[in-house]
Amino acid sequence: MQDRVLVVGIDGVRLDVLRRLPTPHLDALAADGFLTPVEVDAGTPTMSGPCWATIVTGVSVTKHGVWSNNFTGHRLDVFPDFATRLAEKDGRRTFVAAGWSPLMQVRNGGPLFRAPSRSLYIAPTEDTPEAWEECDEQITTESARILAEEDAEASFVYLGAPDETAHFLGCGEEYATSIHRADARLGTLLAAVRSRPSYADERWTVLVVTDHGHADGGGHGGRTAEERTAWLTAAGPGIGTAPPVVRHVDIAAQALVSAGRHPDRHWSLDGRPFAARPHAVLLDMDGTLVDTESLWLRTVRETVPDVDVSHVLGRSVADTTAHLRTRTDADPRALAAELEARFLAAVQQEAVPLPGALDLLDLLAESGIPAALVSASSRPVVDAVLGVLGAHRFRTTVAEGETPRTKPASDPYLAAARALGVDPGACLAVEDSPVGVRAAEAAGCRVLAVPSYAPVEPAPCRTVRPDLKGIDLRELWAAGL
Questions:
Q1: Could you please report the per-residue DSSP string of 377-442?
Q2: Active-site residue, from 81, 284, 423, 432
Q3: Can 16 be counted among the known catalytic residues?
Q4: Which of 94, 231, 245, 396 is the most buried (most CB within 10 A)?
């Protein structure tokens, strides 16, 4: 399956007006995903230049430096639009179409879209609502042809007539009619996408966004709720209900991951995606997939009675032995050997998958998402568990002693990602213990935590749920974001 994203920017559409109107194409997208308010950041002028720059770069106005509709003094060379990033960094095929000159032409500090691999600029013949309607119609017709026949992986199509209508005529009947026409043009673009011969083999995400609202009489630039409230409609793989808060900076981040590109942390984006297909899922073993944590704690208690086992959760035999040496006079090598032998025997006799574990592994296989087993247990213990889970379910496995350091160091997760050929930052790690969570987060992974014997609190890039039962693709794509 190939990842594709279409972003449609409709300028100056008030959310309260939109909600009063029947817009069948936007409504259908919202039913498949969501429609949610987007508040223009307090420090961002409610003008098209700053807002569109924030939307397509994924950074705030203080970084991209576009403070008005004159783009002079910007930093778009440092913080380019998502279509340019994909084209320049990865050689991806991108397409941008618009009729507003600052987006496309070198004048007044532009263009906003620096270097997509394909662009279309059709200017209105004059600055009137009627001319902008004709411009949008031409943009839509030609963009639909390109979307249907060519192979753009990430596209942005701009429609400006509603904003121009509000400026000239206010937010009345003519404004509503212009919004209806924009919705019909969205329908033309969606039909073009669905007509592609390869559509069945593609994963399409569609994001429809506005930059700002309008005052009742038309115009914007102030701080009223009607001007500062924008909106986003999103639908596509992994997109379910709206997150509690969506910001303009999140849209470029979402466009990038929907095109299959995990943002590089050196890009310093301010936005975060709200649904991202993991490039791989890296799963802890003990206490996460199999009920071996209880066997390990029992082994430690039987070997050294009255020990505080909270210090050995998620730890390797070597780390546990080092901790237990303060509680016993036993020879360290003999103690480690006894722990390993007792635990291996218990695993071979008693280990069973935890509820939801096999279902999750099957879901990953059906979705074509590589799975790796990342454990702090020894290779003999890992191999015994693979006999329970099925070794065929994992593309690679990492056991204790196979990396320079084990958990809570990042080494095991980095090794698993390297073996799969994926960016650790694009991976989802599934863990049950604080020690394992620390290791995964140190590697830069998103984390889905299912605490077993010690609590794990929610945090940035970390989602916590009680167990693995009932996880679906949408929850998987949203975990850790």
A1: S-HHHHHHHHHHH-GGG-SEEE-TTSSSS-TTSSHHHHHHHHHHT--GGGEEEEESSHHHHHHHHH
A2: 284
A3: no
A4: 94
